Write a sequence for this structure.
């Protein structure tokens, strides 16, 4: 089977879960004997990976990428005769009836609009206004057009499937739920070193970890509020915030006067990320809205409990009081209570971490994700 995989994000250039998914998926497909040709951005030529130089212009970069990617796709198809094309995220595409197609949706613009409104209520920025008035309406159009132009749709969770069905007006039989997976074999081989901990004066098992975009809908201010109260009892506890985003100035201002909150910026080194997962007390995911964040699976793969909001498909990954705690969104007191239980009970942390790892091994492996994806491919042929 010959597959053309089209993705704006692809390692080493990743910004979030879509890029991580792209790397895992392509490697997994190749391991299963699928011949994959990847079209993406960047300038690192590799065998069967075709990289496009797209102008880095806010709001339009994906449109520029897709124009070039579509042209390249048709040229490569004439040469290699693809069995299907797989788009990673929705793009405004010119459909070719001769190539069966599918698209993976990791989120929806319907939720993005809610998130943009939340952001503007807290911190009014030019970027936030542009997101709501320009990016989100255009993105919604991309969602709807792509959903109708491709033959099949993949998404990681049932709540997103229902949302796509309702606002993109597509038949539910067209949508396939394929949960995200982790390549445990590769993940376990990632080494780690301690220089990063020493640089920031961080002690193992004595810091909370947030890893993700710094945007309004991630609910990070509620974690900061919970941490502020926890510091009154646990003077040595630290909070490490990994990521960047337009909400960072607001969060830094919100955290003023609170000791030991470390904003360390975006980290793309797998070695450093692995170290942080391995060394933290717990990962905290205080989202107000979310789908199926990869960071939860990554922390579970490292035998760590997770404290997360009961939103989206997070409850598929976090079994309350088994491998972590589910809390109400926008509830700093619940976050504080759950973190306190973990801080004071090392044995509980160990048991929860072990349960989480076993759950990943059973339900969220890359092998399972790849097998289910191939079934969708086969339905197109």
């Amino acid at each position: 089977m010959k597959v053309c995989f089209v993705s704006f994000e692809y390692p080493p250039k990743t910004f979030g879960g879509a890029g991580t998914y792209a790397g895992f998926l392509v490697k997994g497909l190749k391991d299963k004997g699928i011949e994959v040709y990847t079209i993406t951005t960047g300038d690192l030529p590799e065998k069967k990976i075709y990289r496009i130089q797209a102008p880095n212009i806010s709001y339009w970069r994906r449109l520029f990428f897709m124009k070039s990617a579509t042209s390249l796709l048709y040229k490569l198809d004439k040469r290699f005769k693809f069995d299907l094309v797989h788009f990673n995220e929705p793009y405004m595409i010119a459909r070719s009836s001769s190539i069966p197609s599918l698209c993976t949706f990791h989120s929806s613009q319907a939720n993005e609009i809610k998130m943009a409104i939340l952001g503007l209520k807290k911190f009014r920025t030019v970027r936030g206004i542009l997101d709501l008035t320009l990016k989100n309406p255009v993105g919604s159009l991309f969602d709807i057009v792509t959903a109708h132009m491709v033959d099949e749709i993949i998404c990681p969770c049932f709540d997103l499937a229902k949302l796509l069905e309702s606002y993109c007006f597509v038949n539910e039989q067209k949508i396939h739920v394929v949960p995200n997976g982790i390549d445990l074999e590769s993940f376990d081989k990632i080494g780690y070193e301690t220089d990063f901990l020493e640089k920031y004066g961080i002690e193992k098992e004595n810091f909370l970890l947030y890893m993700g975009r710094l945007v309004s809908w991630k609910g990070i201010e509620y974690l900061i509020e919970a941490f502020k109260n926890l510091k009154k009892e646990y003077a040595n506890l630290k909070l490490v915030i990994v990521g960047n985003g337009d909400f960072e100035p607001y969060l830094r201002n919100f955290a003023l006067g609170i000791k030991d909150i470390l904003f360390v910026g975006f980290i793309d080194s797998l070695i450093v990320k692995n170290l942080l997962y391995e060394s933290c007390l717990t990962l905290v995911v205080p989202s107000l809205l979310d789908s199926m964040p990869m960071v939860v699976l990554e922390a579970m793969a490292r035998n760590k409990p997770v404290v997360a909001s009961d939103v989206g498909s997070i409850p598929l990954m976090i079994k309350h009081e088994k491998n972590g705690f589910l809390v109400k969104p926008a509830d700093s007191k619940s976050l504080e209570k759950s973190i306190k239980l973990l801080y004071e009970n090392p044995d509980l942390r160990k048991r929860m971490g072990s349960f989480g790892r076993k759950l990943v091994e059973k339900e969220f492996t890359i092998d399972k994700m790849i097998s289910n994806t191939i079934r969708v491919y086969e339905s197109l042929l």
User: Anything to note?
Assistant: The chain has 15 helices and 13 strands. The mean pLDDT is 87. The domain at 2-181+365-380 is CATH 3.40.50.2000 (Rossmann fold).
